[in-house]
Amino acid sequence: MKFNQRILSAGLLTAFLAVATLSSLLEAGDAERRLPTITKPTLDADADQVELFAAMKEGSLEAWLIPDNEHQGFVFIENKSDVPLTVQMPTAFVGVQNLKQFIGNGNGNGNGNGNNNIFGGGNQTAQNQGAGGNQSVGGGANQNQNSNNIGNNNLFGNGNNGNGNAGNNFFRPGAPFFSIPPQRRVRLEFNSVCLNHGLETPSRVNRYHLVSVDEYTDNEQLKELLTWVATGKVPQKTAQAATWHLTDDMSYQELVAKKEYHLGGAVTNFFSRRDVAQAKEMLEFVDRQIAERKKAEKNETKLVGTQSSYEK
Question: Within a 13 Å sphere around the CA of 85, how many CA atoms are in the beta-carbon half?
Fold first, then answer.
């Protein structure tokens, strides 16, 4: 009897030690998985360089967006590989809510009815959702968070008061880049505007996936505008008015007349006249930027052609 008790005790001890060892290993694994998210990424000169969407398609990166509201949020990018990667970010991109009813067909104006294009209106590519979704958001990673920022000046002058002229600013947004250690996650601040007037405002309860602006739209004005939204240099109301003018064909008069309804019954203008005036000015600035870039590209093509003829 005592012998059997000893065997039982030894067996229980062995089992206890095995469970304790397994628990320790699991805790160690959990601790490793709980490594803090990197909020101030740096650059590793020796890391392999990858482009965000190409690496997402290949599977070495996973990325998603959690919006705080219509004009800001956080982008999370996780390195799924076993080597450090330097990520080249696009100058702008779009966040689209993860919905089961997200399907690919049809066209729409993005004005909030059940058959609207999830990608907004105007010249957006055909991707469709049912009713009840939140607005898609467009913009980009806060470039002041990374190494190649373009300064802290507001595109229209100091602060958000609209003093200044967008035509006096000639700097161009640059794409942020940074490195992520293997199996680690980076969090970036995201500057944005809403792209579907009439749908629900984005919030942190939503998770969005990322798509390129080229996949989202063929509207050159919208593509250029979103690169400037990404910088955080454009006052938010100005950027939003300009965006809805493009995506939802809202006239400047409609934007001025748009109302905001508050708890308690108060009604205010959603945009001020200054917001809308600056939106018009911003889009004129965007047109000039597009024209200047096309002219530069044309001159570069001519130069390459001339060099080729000399070589012959």
Answer: 24
